[in-house]
Amino acid sequence: xxxxxxxxxxxxxxxxxxxxxxxxxxxxxxxxxxxxxxxxxxxxxxxxxxxxxxxxxxxxxxxxxxxxxxxxxxxxxxxxxxxxxxxxxxxxxxxxxxxxxxxxxxxxxxxxxxxxxxxxxxxxxxxxxxxxxxxxxxxxxxxxxxxxxxxxxxxxxxxxxxxxxxxxxxxxxxxxxxxxxxxxxxx
Length: 187
Hints:
Blueprint: E1 15-18, E2 24-27, E3 30-32, E4 35-36, E5 40-44, E6 49-52, E7 64-67, E8 73-76, E9 79-81, E10 85-86, E11 91-94, E12 99-102, E13 115-118, E14 124-128, E15 132-137, E16 143-149, E17 159-165, E18 168-173, E19 184-185
Antiparallel strand pairs: 1-2, 2-5, 3-4, 5-6, 7-8, 8-11, 9-10, 11-12, 13-14, 14-15, 15-16, 17-18, 18-19
């Protein structure tokens, strides 16, 4: 048995996704409560190593990352620090170059840990925790488009969501007790 290597920064409150080749992409992290790190790294389980990636534009604490079909990774939200709030600039880590592409036309203040899912139409679906749901087109400089309002007209922070079938999202829990919603199809 051997010890796992360490990433070299505090990954508490970071987010992660697996890359198509099985490596683990990790972004963000912890400086202090509500103060995030602008760091990213990839863990390779075959040789127990971490590879640092280019820094994001600003820190992100309780961010969300979403793997894209081409192997790139979308990063949204995350607390920068208490006075500045959350990071409004979505970024795409580009697997081919290891660099970040800013979605400058898609800046939006989202709550921490937004529920983001790859939709069947190729966009990324923001299922909450806000009442408004949206698609994010990650091409070029990005663009948001309105989808619908959620069934319950209330923020579901501290809850969670899961894609239970392709294009069907189930949201549960929240800061206030909220019943689960019937999975809604994304077309």
